[in-house]
Structures are given as C-alpha cells and as structure tokens.
Amino acid sequence: TTDIPKPRMGIVQDGEILDVDLAARALRMITPDQVLGLLDHYEHAMQDLDEILHKTAGRRFSEVKTFAAIGAVRNLSDVHLTAPIPRPRKNIMCLGLNYAEHAKETAELRGRQATPPGDPIFFTKATTTVNGPYDDIVIDPGVSEQVDWEAELGVVIGKAGKNIREEDALSYVFGYTVINDVTARDLQARHKQYFKGKSIDGYCPMGPWIVTADEVADPQQLMVRLRVNGVTKQEASTSTMIFSVRKIIAVLSLGMTLEPGDIIATGTPSGVGFARNPPEFLKAGDVMETEVERVGMLRNRVMNIE
C-alpha cells in the first residue's frame, strides 16, 4: 500500500505556498502544522505566523533564503491541496432556504406559497463528507441517481462563544472558505429530512483555502457562483441572504457553544438542479466550478464509482 502523507498547513501568496511547519522550524519556533491546531492555540500561533510573514517583508517566499534553503517554498501548482480542515471535529452546520429566490423556487416546485422562513433552518452534514477543492466527487447509482449542486459561502469559527450578540458575531470568525453542499435529492425526499441526503462521503468539497476574516471587509457583499461544464447555474450576492452571517452566528450560539474550527455553510442561491424545468442532475464527466468572490474557486469532476 502507498502511505498518504499527512496534510500540512501552508500560507498561499503570489502563486507560492509556504510550509508553515518548516518555516517555523527555520526560525526556531514550534507552530501547529494543521488549521485546527492553529485555532486551538490561536493567539500564540497567530503571533508566530505574523513573525513568519514579517520575515518576507513584502518579498516572495522564494526570495527569502531562510525558507528557500530548507525546501519550505513550493509553487502552488506543484502541490495537491486538501480541504483546509480535512476532518472537522464536528458536523458541518448548514443553513437551508437562506436566499429568498431559492426559497421561492423550492416552494413553487412543491406547490406551496413562497414564504421566506421566519427563523433560520439548520441541519448538518457528516464530517466524512469533506472533500478536496479539486478532487473528484464519486456517484454511486446504487445509492443515489439525483445528485445536485449547491454553491455556498463557508464560515470558519475562530474562538469559542455562547449567546453571542449579533453586533459582535464577526469577531468570532477566523475566516471564510468555499463550500459545495452536494446533495442526493432522492435520499432527501425518501427520508423526509436533510441529513442523509447531505451526508454521502465526499459530498462537501471545500477550500481551496481559508481567507482570514481581515481580508473580507463585508461577508454580505460577495458574489456566489456555480458553473457546470462552463454553464452558469447559480449566481447571486450574499447581500440577498435572508439571514446574514452575523445573524446566523448569533442564533446558532443561543444556548450552544460555538468552538474554534466549527464550520458553517451559509445557504445556497437559486439555480439548483432539482428546481429546474426539466430537473438537472450531475452525471459522470461533469465538472463543477464553485466560486465565492474574493475567497476562491473549487473545481470538482464527477465520476461514477468503479
């Protein structure tokens, strides 16, 4: 058997990636080499990262001899990126029907009046759904034949909090990522709830990285897009969310502690496959590109199980 190397945390800049663990050792520091470890020791670890970045002083990583000499710098195109948190400690927390147009298309399909939810609709995806930003999504026709797409802004919690005030909510965010909440619609219908249809292995590609919160001035001013084989299927601004990131965090944290490394998928815009006329579902050979402005883009190919 071939041993799969343990993922390592890196900093991405100008088409290069810096191995945090190797860079820290070169500076005689001990810094976590995984995002969850970083968040567990947030203040100390962030000081170390700041020192590493200060060492570059505006230069490319490869121009810093201390880093280049020990092989800490690679071209981004030469590495395989995993999800930034490959195995979360808890289920991914998700929002249902959080864009008015998506709520409308879903209601119309079911012959109901299109009334936006008065309170956030929460569900979760199993930790085993997490997939890489450029990895394949495997469809098993024996499990599901109605596999759908859902482009979403992902939020990564950076510090623990309970009963968080809405006005303070963004201070608990470590950063933002891109999520595709891939869904088996036939399972969702069969089991009369979200969890099973959302929790098939590999049905949550995520990444390609986490953009720290300081780089996103307003999470409610980002475009979310999804393309299948180059054709745009979803496109909307996070400004049209029914419940903002601030509101989501405030409501979720009522009586329930949010912890470092918790991941929240904030809901998907209209344009999902099952609501189209006729319905559209993913098939082997399809390529999905899931994009959030100023955050990044996933690119996942669909294949049938071998």
What is the global morphology? globular
The termini sit apart by: 19 Å
**Average of the residue pLDDT scores:** 94
Strand order of the largest sheet: 5-4-15-9-10-12-6
Taken in chain order, the helices and strands follow as EEHHHHEEHEEEEEEEHHEEEHEEE
DSSP helix fraction: 10-25%
What is the CA-based Rg, rounded? 20 Å
- Strand runs, count: 17
- Contiguous uncertain segments of 5+ residues: none
Class by alpha and beta content:
alpha+beta
Major β-sheet, in short?
7 strands, mixed
What does this protein look like?
This protein is of the alpha+beta class and 306 residues long. It contains 8 helices and 17 strands. The protein has helices spanning 20-26, 35-40, 42-56, 65-68, 100-109, 185-191, 195-198, 245-252; strands at 10-13, 16-19, 73-75, 92-96, 121-125, 130-131, 137-139, 147-148, 151-157, 173-180, 183-184, 204-212, 223-228, 231-237, 263-265, 287-292, 296-304. Strand 13 (223-228) and strand 14 form a beta hairpin. It starts with 9 loop residues before the first strand and ends with a strand. The relative contact order is 0.18. The mean pLDDT is 94.
